[in-house]
């Protein structure tokens, strides 16, 4: 909705028919100022980033528009999937999970929960965590260390994109000043011109400072903050998976494993005890 409103304002401004407080909005669209600021910001971002960080940043920015996938329904699916798998393991033994974990896309259980099976980051973390348990190649202490190390890597990779975006946002006011100085240089070249022309060039120069500050505190800064919030939501989801995996290594009952994971998530997305019992009954009835 915000993007649509923004496009309408831009089109109206370009058409010259939109005014704000008695002034025409079109005067804010000084293309050489925008080119200077945007080019400097993009260049700085590319210099600071590796190829992976740039790709992750693009995905993260698109994710801020789509919203976090780790909502209450995603946790419901995670708990139902985990309960169903742990119930099968307790009934038929851990080796019965091997075809599901090794080939999750062909698993009838995983395919019931597309929010999990179609998110390859979540699916890989889930299956990679359960694989050593099935193989018997790691004890609970080793599993805890391995999961903690993987969670740390996920955090560092996500934080790298936020740092790059935030540093770019912090630099934008400076780039706005650079554009403004460039505008003053252009103004000095027309100092012998009419007052109207000089006024136009000075105004265009000031627009550079305005755009740099606006882009920093109005767009990139809030987007970096939103990405950080979504990163915490993602980390909490992966932490819930790790709790379930660790509970499985200690041979906990399926309901106990899910309950331990449930207590570590925020109240906004946490299923209540009654809701959790209904999930269990739904799986048990199948």
Task: Please tag this protein with its features.
disordered N terminus, 2 strands, 286 residues
Report on this structure.
This protein starts with a helix and ends with a helix. The protein has one domain (31-284). Mean pLDDT is 85; it is low at 1-18. It is elongated. It is an all-alpha fold and 286 residues long. Helices cover 77% and strands 1% of the residues. A two-stranded antiparallel sheet has the order 1-2. A hairpin with a 2-residue loop joins strand 1 and strand 2 (23-24).
Give the overall shape.
elongated
Counted up, domains total 1
Give helix and strand order, one letter per element, not per position.
HEEHHHHHHHHHH
The beta-strand count equals: 2
| % residues in beta strands | under 5%
Query: What is the residue-averaged pLDDT?
Result: 85
Q: Helix segment count?
A: 11
Report, as a whole number of angstroms, the end-to-end distance: 42 Å
The helix-and-strand class reads mainly alpha
Radius of gyration: 27 Å
Largest sheet: 2 strands, antiparallel
In which order are the strands of the major sheet placed? 1-2
Low-confidence stretches: 1-18
- Percent helix: over 70%
Summarize this structure briefly.
By secondary structure, this protein is mostly helical. The protein has eleven helices and two strands.
